[in-house]
Input
Amino acid sequence: MVDSNFRKLINKAHNLIFPPRCAGCSDLMPLNSTDAFCPKCREKWEMHKRETCRRCGQPVSECWCGIPFDKDRCITNEYHLVQYDKKADTIIKRLIYKMKSSRRNLLYYTVAQEMYTELFPRIEYTDLILTYVPRSKANITKYGHDHALRLTLSLSELSGIEIAHMLSHSGNSNQKKLNVLQRQQNAQKSYNIIKGAKNLINGKNVILIDDVMTTGSTVTRCAKLLKLRGARRVLVFTVAKTI
Ligand SMILES: [Zn+2]
Ligand SMILES: [Zn+2]
Output
């Protein structure tokens, strides 16, 4: 209790020094905001959720484009909130960037709330456990946090589902300039299962959380590792998929 009161106090002080800004347009927001988006950006975000995929014409929430090389079928299903073009300057791109660089609680709470209300009802399995694609040590040092872990913590708080810390990340995380094949090779050597973590996921339906899915190399590699260690199914949750 003391801890949570202390945390609230710290947050309050932080908000006073650094007033919250909208995750989409960076405008100043009221101190008591309960949404990471301002009303205008919230409207845009809701519109993005209702778009259709440019490739397959399906509603973006139901599109299955983008993980063509999951040849071992390690991923049972893949769920995301929105799709975006990396070259376009949208509020989605800015939200993702903010998640990587900002430690503001409201940001994670908003995204976790979205995942909880939009993605969870679509899952037809029980025996769920949460895990996440870990950030590289170099990026944790650079940005001061692991954004996928923070998102997973918020989602665990909302859903009451436990987190299993299963995966480790070693090596170079900068995949931006790599092509599909290079990304696959990079993911292959960068991610591993944490030793001794096997019995946490044995027979469970694992929800694997990440911020963005670009080529699917990372989630496919992680899903394969989880399946090899006994996960019954791997369900991938991301905020956005790139097109
Ligand atoms: Zn805004
Ligand atoms: Zn599609």
In short: Residues 2-17 form the longest helix (16 residues).
